[in-house]
Write a structure and sequence with these properties.
Layout lengths: L1 E4 L4 E4 L5 E4 L14 E4 L3 E4 L4 E4 L13 H8 L9 E3 L5 H4 L16 E5 H7 L19 E4 L3 E2 L4 E5 L8 E7 L2 E5 L7 H5 L10 H18 L2 E3 L8 E3 L5
């Protein structure tokens, strides 16, 4: 399998939930707003033997000429939006769901793809809050939308795993092909540092549960040598447990 990180850049985010672009080469970390986090926004393409999978969709920002940023990044890797077969959504917070639809918010950004979303997460997200922006996804066509519940399988190679912990109905994904395993923990496992340390994040819905899940996944990785994808990690978009010391 091939992993392609689709980096939209680094951002600072504080309690207002606004994502402010941060230039790692020029901007001063000490000048960011108090209590803000520095994060990467990084959806992923996973190419299997017969599918092109997209894991989460980024912020949905556009370039000065009006094109979707995520489409431009795909083009840099020789991938067209219509090449994507499935879009696997961990949850529907703005920084993960902003690119579900085109800028007009009426047509999907990946017209040939089926979008897999937790039914309960969808229902919760239709209520506007600072974290959910229903206008970013509510017009997604029923023909493209597939609701999942709990944990289960999408295909022989793709599993969805209910986690909660970060948001009430957050889910993770495990993709297996031959002896390769790719694991995407979404915002329950957004950065490598959080896997290596007993870390509770205040922004999680249930911080203790999130920490315990990360420990569980680390133990499981000793058996299947999975590659973890890290959506918000500035330095490590993906990493394999066997290489950690």
């Amino acid at each position: 399998m091939k992993i392609i990180p689709l980096s939209e850049g680094a951002f600072t985010v504080d309690q207002t939930k606004r994502f402010v672009p941060f230039d790692l080469a020029k901007d001063n970390l000490l000048e960011r707003s108090r209590g803000s986090l520095l994060v990467e926004i990084q959806p992923f393409i996973v190419i299997t033997s017969d599918e092109v999978l997209l894991l989460d969709t980024g912020l949905g920002f556009t370039t000065p000429d009006g094109k979707m940023q995520i489409h431009n990044i795909l083009a840099q890797h020789g991938i067209l939006p219509e090449d994507v077969n499935r879009v696997l959504m961990s949850h529907l917070h703005k920084d993960h769901s902003g690119g579900i639809m085109m800028p007009d918010k009426k047509t999907s950004a990946f017209k040939n793809a089926t979008y897999y979303i937790s039914r309960q997460e969808w229902e919760l997200a239709l209520t506007p809050t600072s974290s959910y922006h229903p206008e970013d996804f509510k017009e997604l066509s029923g023909e493209q939308l597939r609701f999942v519940e709990g944990s289960g399988s999408i295909s022989n190679s793709i599993e969805y795993i209910f986690t909660g912990a970060h948001s009430p109905y957050h889910q993770a994904f495990k993709i297996t092909e031959g002896d390769e395993v790719i694991f995407y923990g979404g915002d329950v496992a957004p950065r490598m540092m959080q896997m290596k340390n007993r870390y509770k994040a205040k922004y999680d819905y249930r911080p203790e549960e999130a920490m315990l899940l990360r420990q569980q996944w680390m133990e499981e990785s000793k058996k299947d040598n999975r590659t973890f994808l890290f959506y918000h990690d500035i330095k490590y978009p993906y990493y394999q447990f066997k290489r950690w010391t």
